Amino acid sequence: MKFSITSVLSFMALAASANAALNPIEVKGNAFYDSVSGSRFYIRGVDYLPGGASNFTDPLSSSDTCTRDIEYFKELGINTIRVYSVDNSADHKDCMEKLDDAGIYLILDVNTPKNSISRSDPQVSYNTAYLQHVFATIDAFASYDNVLGFFAANEVINNENTTQAAPYVKAVVRDMKTYMAAQNLRAIPVGYSAADISANRYQQIQYFNCGDDETARIDMFGMNDYSWCGNSSYTVSGYDQKVEQYSNYTRPLFLSEFGCNKVEPRPFGEIESIYSTNMTGVFSGGLVYEYSEEENNYGLVSISSSGTITEKQDFVNLKNAFASVSDPSGDGGAKDDDSPAVCPEMEEGVWEVNPLAGLPVMPERASAMLVSGAGDPSGTNEPPTQYGDSGDQSDDSNWDYSPTTAAASGSSTSSGSSSSSASSGSSASSGSSSSSSASGSATSKSAANPGAVNNLPSMTSSVVMLPLAVIVSSLLFGFASVVVV
Questions:
Q1: What is the C-alpha separation between 321 and 327, in angstroms, rounded?
Q2: Is 347 marked active-site?
Q3: Pick the catalytic residue: 97, 257, 290, 293?
Q4: Which of UniProt's keywords are assigned here (predicted)?
C-alpha cells in the first residue's frame, strides 16, 4: 500500500489534535473567543523568525529548536507566536504539540520568499501554482487546534502606489476560506497583516472587511505598528487616535508587530495601554517584534552559533510588563456586530481600487483543487510562483480594478519597506524605516518581506522563463483534469 506525503502528514496532524490541550479560537464580532469556554482571548505574543529573512528556516520543523525556545516563551508569559514562513512538506507535529502543551497558539503566514502576491505584478503572481502552495500549507496545519489564524499576506500594500494589489490579496482570503469549507476543514480565521501607512491605513482596514461576500471578508486584521517609542504614552504615540478611528470596526484588530527600538533597551510601557479598557474595546492584544536578535536589532534574545540563548534586557522588561498587566474582566468592551464595512472610494494617489469592481477569478485549475485537494506539498524545492503559471488561462484578463490603468504603472518601485522587501507581500515584514506611520516609526521590522521580486523579470518580458514554467506546471499539476461540478 502506498501513502502520499499528504496523507501521512494529515494523519499526524489528526492524531495530534486528538490530544490537544488548547481549544480552538473563534471570531465573534470584533474579538476572539475560546470556542469552548466562551472567554475572550487576547493575543500576548512575539514574532518568531530565528535566522531572519536572509536565512530562511522553518522554526516549527525542528524539535530541538522548539524545545529550546518554548521554555523562553513560557518565561515571557506569552500565549501566541507568529511565524512568517514554513516548509509545508516538513513534519510539524512535535513542535505543534509542544506549543499546545505550553498553552501557545500559532498565527501563520502562508507565504514564503518564493510564494506570495507581488505588489509590482499582482495579476501574474496570483496563479494556480501559488494557490497550490497556499492550500497545501493550510492542509499541513488545519488540524491543529492551536492554530489561531492564517495571514494571507503581509505588507503587500506598503505605500500609496501599491494599492492595485489589494484585490488580489482579498481574492486569496476568499480562496483560502473557500478551500477550507470545501475540504471540510476547521474554519480557521484568515486575515491580513498591514504596514501602518498613514495615507491609506483606514482604506485598507475598510476594504478587507467590505462587501456582501462574507467569504471574501477577512476574519481578523493585523497592524504592524511602531508608533510607541521609549517612554511614550497613549496619546503621544497616537494609540488613542487609532482606537477612535476604528471604534466601529467589526473584525478583531491587533498589533501583528510592535516594539519600536529607537530607545534601547525597550521599556515596553505600551503593554499597560494595549491590555487596558482604553484599547480592548477595539484591539485584541498584539505580538512583539521579535524573539531573536537579527540584523535589524529587535531581538529579545541572542542566539549563538552553537544555539545558546542569552536574554537581553528587552526580554526582562517585556516579561515584567506582561506579568504586571492582567486582561480586563468580562468582554473588555468587545462588540458583537459583524456587519461589513463600506468599501472605500477611489482616490487618485491614495487608494486606486474601484469599489464597484469584483475580485479576480480563481484560476480554473486552482478551482479543481476545491474538490481534489491541493495534492502533495512541494516544500522549499518548488520554483518561485511570482513569475506566473503558464498553465493558467487568463481567467481575469478582462477584469479591471479601476476605471483607469494609471495605478498599474509605477507600482514596481515601492519605496517604503526594508532592504529586500520591495515588491512582494510574502511573509516577514520589517526592520525598515519607511514612509509609514505618522509617528515616523518603522513600517515593520521583521524579515524584510522575503518574497520580494523587484529584481526579477516579469513574465511578459522574460520569455526564457516559459519552458521551465511549462515543465513545472506539468509535473506539479497533473490533476488539472479534475472538473468542478
A1: 12
A2: no
A3: 257
A4: Glycoprotein, GPI-anchor, Lipoprotein, Membrane, Signal, Transferase, Transmembrane, Transmembrane helix
Pairing between β-strand 40-41 and β-strand 31-34 as defined by DSSP bridges: antiparallel
Residue 423 has pLDDT above 70, yes or no: no
Using CB atoms within 10 A of its CB, is residue 81 exposed (0-12), middle (13-18) or buried (19+)? buried
- The β-bridge relationship of strands 301-303 and 283-288 is unpaired
**pLDDT-derived band at 312, boundaries 50, 70, 90:** very high
CB atoms within 10 A of CB 468: 12
CA distances (Å), 460 to each of 11, 108, 234, 362, 463, in order? 42, 32, 49, 20, 7
Task: Work out the angle between the directed axes of helices 466-476 and 128-141 (0-180°, nearest 10).
Answer: 40
Dihedral (Cα; 274, 277, 279, 281), 10-degree rounding: 130
440 — phi, psi (to 5°)? 80, 10
Nearest to 82 by CA among 44, 108, 103: 108
Per-residue model confidence as pLDDT tens digits over 294-308 = 999 999 999 999 999
CA distance 17 to 39: 21
Ranges assigned E (strand) in 35-188: 40-41, 43-48, 80-83, 105-109, 147-154
- For residue 386, give the DSSP letter: T
Distance CA 46, CA 287 (A): 4
**Can you give the pLDDT at residue 196?**
84
Sheet of 40-41, strand order = 25-28, 31-34, 40-41
**Structure pTM?**
0.82
pLDDT tens figures, 112-141: 999 999 999 999 999 999 999 999 999 999
Whether omega before 97 lies within 30 degrees of 0, making that bond cis, reads no
Domains and CATH numbers, the chain: 39-370 (3.20.20.80)
Predicted confidence (pLDDT) at residue 101 exceeds the cutoff of 60 = yes
Name the catalytic one among 26, 97, 155, 382.
Answer: 155
